């Protein structure tokens, strides 16, 4: 890992550290400053022209939708995500675009009980 860090530019190091911070302080249990952590990570990724995968875009756009303790969420939820998104991908003929993403997100919000 140390040899990898030596090869990274300052911007790449910042992106790596931001990712580690989100992984450590958000994906287990939410830190109080989780919005800042995710925002910093997204900014760092943009600086190095890193395309955000769908899951990261959802994380950035819908932070308030995530439960307080993400560490308690099972793999079943991840499997449900992959099944749901594949259905939308088929409906949109395999083309990823903003309309597909928006429709998927609203379907998740609509299908989630309000006490979640």
List keywords for this structure.
mainly alpha, 0% strand, 6 helices, 116 residues
Q: What is the CA-based Rg, rounded?
A: 16 Å
Q: Say how many strands there are.
A: 0
Helix content: 55-70%
Number of domains: 2
Q: Which parts are unreliable, with pLDDT below 50 for 5 consecutive residues or more?
A: none
Mean pLDDT: 76
Assign an overall shape. Answer: globular
Range of strand content: under 5%
Q: Give the end-to-end Cα distance, rounded to a whole number of Å.
A: 38 Å
Summarize the structure in words.
- By secondary structure, the chain is an all-alpha fold.
- It folds into two domains: 56 residues, no CATH class; 44 residues.
- It is built from six helices and no strands.
- α2 runs antiparallel to α3.
- It is globular, with a radius of gyration of 16 Å.
- It starts with a helix and ends in a 5-residue tail after the last helix.
- The mean pLDDT is 76.
Quick recap of the structure?
Helices cover 65% and strands 0% of the residues. It is mainly alpha-helical and 116 residues long. The model has no long low-confidence stretch (mean pLDDT 76).
How is the secondary structure organized here?
Layout: H1 2-7, H2 10-25, H3 34-47, H4 54-61, H5 75-91, H6 98-111
